[in-house]
Design goal:
The complex is a heterodimer of chains A (about 300) and B (about 220).
Chain A lengths: L1 H5 L11 H30 L2 H5 L8 H19 L4 E3 L9 E6 L8 H9 L12 E6 L21 E6 L8 H5 L5 E3 L5 E3 L9 H5 L6 E2 L14 E3 L11 E2 L5 H4 L6 H5 L5 E5 L6 H8 L2 E2 L11 E4 L3
Parallel strand pairs in A: 1-8, 2-12
Antiparallel strand pairs in A: 2-10, 3-4, 5-6, 7-9, 11-12
Chain B lengths: L1 E3 L12 H8 E3 L29 E3 L8 E6 L5 E4 L2 H4 L30 H4 L9 E2 L5 E2 L4 H8 L1 H8 L6 E3 L8 E3 L2 H4 L30
Parallel strand pairs in B: 3-9
Antiparallel strand pairs in B: 1-2, 1-3, 4-5, 6-7, 8-9
The chains are: A alpha+beta (about 300), B alpha+beta (about 220).
């Protein structure tokens, strides 16, 4: 009896020696780790349709494929928001190159431009995301290290001036060069765009931008359906997925229809001037020809299409 | 309705503004333009010249002359207002009254800050205050107040005419749609024209600066 007691074993696996037990334990841990590792993939595929996964790069889509993609995105957006959303594709207008100028003598730092951007471009509500960051700057120089984007007092404050910074739509954009998969590029009207369906979220472009103009979607942007702007475009303000980069597009869904950008219309002081720099009669050309304009970080050679000027 | 049917004039000196401004600012619709576009060969235009532009630039109209609320209601429940002359016709104009000084008889609540201007610098007393008055004595309807402002604020008016001053909404491309521009007094109170201090819209909520109302020193 005492002999048989010492040889007791589990009924199913039979006799287990130490080595087998360790192997089994390690295998179980490995399986668990693997399951945990691929779990996000399952969550991700729940939101990602097969067509979206297999979709080509925006610039490789044929017109028919593009129409299918727009159709799919429109249907998905309508389903998700219950609103009559339309996702269009706005192409650059031939013979147009956009430029923007901002009068620092007039800007009072009210952040109405940032707020308008937030609403127009369907930005994430919890983070109060916007493509425009307004810096409160010390008079007497342009020192961003002393600039403060987190002010909450009445503006304009004494001895301060205000400098809204957004994508400068550089003619020589470092963010485009940095992208390893060509998910971001410059279009013929000068606007640098992102294919949200191609972006892998590596954030190299964010690091490459000297103006801190690119934003990363850490979470899926949350916008209440009633606040959604239904006029959307593939390359601009359509609802972005989680984990992709986004940036100011000069409101291409508006400006490529001839309209002024949302931030300009919202400016209560009229500090912003926008137009086609190839048109010699445009307002922007008058500013560039008659005002003393400057660009941010000129020494980097990025050649911004966004200019700042003073009245005096 | 004041319409700019063309792209505003571009001029080197403020002194030359008036004749051009008058050419360019028309009362009524459908007028031609004094300034023809300068198309360049090889440079494509998105915006055909002003003369062929189908959409106008409209300057928001201003009301006037002002009516003063009496605080009474008429039979239909509408507020009763009176014109300036109702009170001013019985009293000789006071040329010494300056903006920024307390007013004794009229408009006691009006606290202005606009240089050392007097009431009569801009208001025409000979017309029972129903018009404005230019520096040369000409009467000017209230609706054309911009001409009055432009007498002193030439650089701002020049910038305005060139689209570089003043808020607007609508289209940058006038071949695709029109544009509506603010009048001077939509943004600047003529009695205290400095743009007021405002509370800014909420700033970005940084992921790493969670606390509300965070302000860096």
């Amino acid at each position: 009896m005492s002999e048989s007691k010492s040889k007791l074993s589990l009924p199913v696996v039979g006799e287990v020696d130490r080595r087998t037990a360790i192997k089994a334990g390690v295998a179980t841990l490995g399986l668990a780790a693997w399951a945990a590792a691929i779990k996000p993939w399952f969550e991700w595929t729940a939101e990602l349709s097969t067509e979206e996964f297999l979709q080509k790069h925006y610039r490789e889509l044929t017109p028919a494929q593009l129409q299918q993609v727009l159709q799919r995105l429109t249907e998905e957006a309508r389903e998700a928001t219950g609103k009559n959303v339309t996702v269009k594709d706005h192409k650059p207008i031939p013979g147009v190159q956009f430029a923007y100028a901002l009068n620092l003598s007039i800007c009072i730092g009210c952040r109405k431009c940032a707020e308008a951007c937030h609403i127009e471009n369907n930005h994430d509500r919890p983070s109060n995301q916007s493509y425009i960051r307004v810096f409160e700057m010390e008079k007497g120089g342009i020192n961003f290290e002393k600039g403060n984007a987190h002010y909450h007092h009445a503006v304009p404050a004494k001895d301060k001036y205000y400098m809204p910074v957004q994508c400068q739509q550089c003619e020589n954009p470092p963010c485009v060069t940095a992208c390893p998969i060509e998910a971001t590029w410059q279009e013929s009207d000068g606007i640098v765009v992102v294919d949200y369906n191609w972006c892998i979220g590596c954030r190299y472009c964010e690091a490459a931008c000297p103006y801190h103009a690119r934003r990363f979607n850490w979470e899926k942007p949350q916008v209440p359906p009633e606040e959604i702007n239904p006029n959307q475009s593939y390359l601009s303000n359509r609802l972005r997925p989680q984990g992709v980069m986004e940036k100011c597009t000069f409101c291409l869904h508006r400006t490529r229809e001839g309209k002024l950008p949302a931030c300009l219309e919202a400016c209560p002081t009229g500090a912003r001037v926008f137009g086609n720099v190839l048109d010699p009669d445009s307002e922007i050309r008058w500013v560039l020809e008659n005002k003393r304009v400057f660009v941010l970080k000129e020494e980097l050679g990025t050649k911004p299409r966004f200019y700042y000027f003073f009245d005096k | 309705m004041v319409i700019l049917t063309c792209h505003p004039a571009r001029l080197p000196r403020a002194a030359a503004l008036w004749p051009m401004a008058l050419l360019c600012v028309w009362v009524g619709l459908g007028q031609g333009c004094s300034r023809s576009p300068r198309p360049q060969e090889g440079v494509p235009f998105s915006r055909a010249g002003a003369s062929s532009s189908p959409y106008p630039v409209i300057i928001r109209e201003v009301a006037g002359p002002p009516e003063i609320a009496t605080g009474l209601l008429d039979d239909k429940g509408q507020p009763v207002t009176v014109g300036c002359a109702t009170c001013h016709s019985t009293k000789a104009p006071n040329a010494a009254a300056r903006l920024g000084e307390p007013l004794r008889d009229f408009h006691q609540k009006l606290a202005g800050q606009h240089g050392s201007l007097s009431c009569l610098s801009c208001h025409d007393a000979t017309d029972g205050y129903a018009s404005l008055r230019l520096a040369d004595g000409q009467r000017l309807p209230y609706q054309e107040v911009m001409k009055l402002c432009a007498q002193c604020h030439g650089p701002q008016y020049r910038d305005y005419l060139n689209g570089a001053h003043g808020g607007m909404i609508g289209h940058w491309d006038l071949t695709q749609g029109g544009r509506v521009r603010n009048n001077c007094i939509h943004c600047h109170d003529p009695h205290a024209p400095k743009y007021p201090t405002v509370t800014p819209a909420p700033g970005p909520r940084d992921r790493f600066l969670k606390e509300e109302g965070h302000e860096r020193k």
